[in-house]
């Protein structure tokens, strides 16, 4: 009896140890099941019985197993969404292909997980729709030249539309705009014509400047030439005035000589001019035969007058006779 009792107690002890071990195992499983480690850059949404209760930030967290569970693992880093290419009709009925990219960041994990069913698809569709609206209201030239304006308008519209989803649209960029081939060729020809026009304008402006400078140079040259002529005329007039004064002075001297000496001075000047004229006839290269229109006696007479003038000029004056001697000339002239 005692032995049976001891065996029963021993069995019960073994059973209790088994239960304790089982409880310890269950506690460990329960503990490890409720431990959650959230990585950096992510936020986990915790749902209790299907209801969002907590946004678990990066680190170690413990949740109640079988009651709480991780609903969504939301990426909190800035992300890039590629908008696929699409055909857009502009305001002037031109078909262009457009690609874009969107940069966004989740600010509220609960809203991003539960306010929209598929976040990426929603952003893509919203951006595509607004891209068609914005570019469809612009001409082709505006779409090609005003990318910054398109990006700014898209950013404002998409950011305002996604703010209830807990998002922040940081940037919207147009990657590529592809006009049709015929329009591209027309634009290339237009650009070539515009550049040729600019080249012709610059060439014309250069020719104009050259002509202006040439005209200015000619004007300046004519002004200087006119000033030179004026100075030369002034100098010529001054020379003629000096020559006239000299001629008048010479004429006056000759007149005084003729008045004081009589016909002898006149014969001298006539003979001098006559000799100079004959000399010019003699040295003329075309003169073969010289005919004198005057008689030789006139030349001899003129030369005789010249000799008489020279003799009178070089003959010493006669000594005056004493006043007290008889026979002296009262006129003061001695006898020859």
Can you offer a commentary on this structure?
With 336 residues, the chain is of the alpha+beta class. It folds into 4 domains: 2-74, no CATH class; 78-179, Tetrahydropterin Synthase, Chain A; 182-260; 262-318, no CATH class. Helix content is 60%, strand content 19%. It has 8 helices and 8 strands; from the N terminus they run αβββββββααααβααα. The strands form 3 sheets. A 3-stranded antiparallel beta sheet has the order 3-2-5. Strand 2 and strand 3 form a beta hairpin. The longest helix has 81 residues, at 181-261. The termini are far apart.
Most strands sheet: 3 strands, antiparallel
Low-confidence stretches: 320-336
What is the fold named in CATH at topology level of the largest domain?
A: Tetrahydropterin Synthase, Chain A
Strand arrangement within the widest β-sheet reads 3-2-5
Question: What pattern of helices and strands is seen along the backbone?
Answer: HEEEEEEEHHHHEHHH
CATH architecture of the largest domain: 2-Layer Sandwich
- The number of E-state strands comes to 8
Helix share bin? 55-70%
* Cα-based radius of gyration, to the nearest Å: 67 Å
Shape: rod-shaped
Mean pLDDT: 78
Distance between the termini: 222 Å
Number of helices: 8
The figure for the number of domains is: 4
Q: What structural category do the secondary elements indicate?
A: alpha+beta
Supply the CATH superfamily name of the largest domain. Answer: Band 7 domain
CATH class of the largest domain: Alpha Beta
Beta-strand residue fraction: 15-25%
């Amino acid at each position: 009896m005692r032995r049976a009792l001891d065996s029963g107690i021993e069995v019960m002890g073994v059973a209790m140890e088994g239960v304790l071990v089982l409880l310890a195992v269950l506690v460990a499983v329960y503990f490890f099941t409720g431990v959650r480690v959230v990585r950096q850059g992510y936020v986990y949404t915790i749902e209790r019985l299907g209801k969002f209760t907590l946004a678990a930030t990066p680190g170690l967290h413990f949740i109640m197993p079988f009651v709480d569970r991780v609903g969504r693992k939301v990426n909190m880093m800035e992300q890039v969404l590629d908008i696929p290419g699409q055909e857009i009709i502009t305001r002037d009925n031109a078909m262009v292909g457009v690609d874009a990219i969107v940069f966004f960041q989740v600010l509220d994990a609960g809203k991003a997980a539960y306010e929209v069913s598929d976040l990426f698809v929603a952003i893509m569709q919203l951006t595509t729709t607004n891209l068609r609206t914005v570019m469809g209201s612009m001409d082709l030239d505006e779409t090609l030249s005003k990318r910054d304006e398109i990006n700014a308008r898209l950013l404002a519209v998409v950011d305002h539309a996604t703010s209830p989803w807990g998002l922040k649209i940081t940037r919207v960029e147009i990657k590529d705009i592809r006009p049709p081939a015929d329009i591209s060729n027309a634009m290339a020809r237009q650009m070539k014509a515009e550049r040729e026009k600019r080249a012709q304008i610059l060439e014309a402006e250069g020719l104009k400047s050259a002509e202006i400078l040439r005209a200015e140079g000619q004007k300046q040259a004519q002004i200087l030439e006119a000033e030179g002529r004026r100075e030369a005329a002034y100098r010529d007039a001054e020379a003629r005035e000096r020559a006239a004064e000299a001629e008048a002075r010479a004429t006056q001297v000759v007149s005084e000589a003729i008045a004081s000496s009589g016909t002898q001075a006149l014969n001298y000047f006539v003979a001098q001019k006559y000799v100079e004229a004959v000399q010019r006839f003699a040295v003329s290269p075309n003169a073969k035969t010289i005919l004198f229109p005057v008689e030789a006696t006139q030349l001899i007479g003129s030369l005789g007058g010249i000799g008489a003038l020279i003799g009178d000029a070089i003959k010493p004056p006669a000594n005056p006779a004493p006043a007290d001697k008889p026979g002296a000339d009262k006129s003061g002239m001695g006898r020859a």
